[in-house]
C-alpha cells in the first residue's frame, strides 16, 4: 500500500461529486 489518502479521497469525492 503506497497510495496517499488524497488519491483515495479524490476518487471517492469525484464519484460522489460528478
Q: In what range is the share of β-strand residues?
A: under 5%
Please give the share of residues in helix.
55-70%
The average pLDDT is 85
Tally the beta strands. 0
Unreliable spans? none
How would you classify the quaternary structure?
Answer: single chain
Reading the helices and strands in chain order gives H
Q: What's the shape?
A: elongated
SSE class: mainly alpha
Total number of helical segments?
1
Q: What is the radius of gyration computed over CA atoms, rounded to a whole number of angstroms?
A: 8 Å
Biggest sheet details: none
Brief digest:
The protein has one helix at residues 5-16.
Task: List key phrases describing it.
mainly alpha; 18 residues
Q: What's the structural blueprint in terms of helices and strands?
A:
Blueprint: H1 5-16
